[in-house]
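Good morning N.,

You mentioned wanting to compare the apo and holo forms, so I went ahead and generated the holo version with iron/sulfur cluster. This is what I fed in:
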Amino acid sequence: MTIALPILMLPVATQRYSCHGCGNCCRDFTVQLREADLAKLRAQGWEEKLGMPVTVEFRGTTYLRQRDDGACVFLMDDGLCRIHKDHGFAEKPIACQLFPFVLVPDDVRTHVGISFACQSVRENKGAELRSHLHEVDRMSRGVPETRVATYSAMLADALSAKEGELDALRLALDRFLAREDVVLRDRLDGLAWVAASLGRAKLADVRAKRFAELVTVLVAALPAELEHLPLGPALPKQMRLLRQAVYARLEDVQVNQAKARGRWRTVLGQLLSSRAFTRGRGQVPAVARGLLSGCDFAAIDAVPTLSESPDRDAIDQLLSRYARATLLGNRGWGAGYYGWPAIRGLQALVLNIACTAWLARALAAKRGHAAATIDDVRDALGRIDRHAGRAPWLGSVGERLRLEFFRLDDGLRRITRASI
Ligand code: SF4
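and this is what came out, ligand included:
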């Protein structure tokens, strides 16, 4: 008999959560079903009660059916879930029960991370996370693969992590990201610098204790070291690639729509739209069901950076919590991020934050705000974290090439400072 890994709740004491029933996740997510979910739905007799199928098949996977506007078929007018109302919380599909918690095993434990796609998580509303531990433990039995050590952690490509290396990296960065005496811009620039420096280092020669020492030295040099490494503005080709990365994170094809339009028309439409978005001239093309409709790129470029926002303190707290929760919840690499090695995962985290900041400025431009507000940043982060670690295309070769490109000319640092 396999013994389940111990479970570790996200150790970010400043993060809180309780579901406030906003229903946003039911309007937004495509929910993949497991065999046990299908058996429950059949036993509950929904097809007979509603007079229509409640699931849909797409490329060999079964999903909860969505209405034309993307909402789940079980979402009622009052914002509540019909399965929950008629049969109780524990009878919902397991993915719906677990959200926003994310279970990520490593070699020795199952980390409980949290998704910032949830409005209550972004607004930091509710109970202390540890109060959810018992319930998360119960739910995790519905996804038994999350309680076994199936993944061998990697530090970099072809370099397995040695004991203690990833914890050393996580903890050193967490301490730096939590520093209140360093402005957000410098903390995130520092994160980008560490990610880029480790990407260049010959890590095969610096292992175990020496790797922990290297990380300690790098982080201890911050933020002072940044003053000796001045940067010019982001290069036009870097900003083009940043917009392409944002587009990839907003891609939002509904199963219903893809089936109705056909695969090739869907792919061609995305390709044309992605090109126009990347070019970044004139009107923003249609993306994510009108998220940026009516907005033009020049207006986005005119919005000041997040550091110049009157809401910069609240923005600082939100983005710090996000970066720390991603690292400490093991959502930055390994089983939590496409099985990627830690260094590439770290670079992807920086890119996700840069995409959030660009999108927040875009939402501010669309809403006529002179600067990005905390709500603009919350909404942007919700969109970005909805796909991060989940959408298959963000774990693809295309995304890896983007990260390779940002290794040149201080790309990660420049795009970070461009919007933050
Ligand atoms: S988005 Fe979060 S707060 Fe809103 S219904 Fe879903 S879990 Fe609850």
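The beta strands are 7-9, 16-17, 55-58, 61-64, 101-105, 110-114, 127-128, 154-156, 159-160.

Happy to go through it together on a call whenever suits you.

Best,
F.
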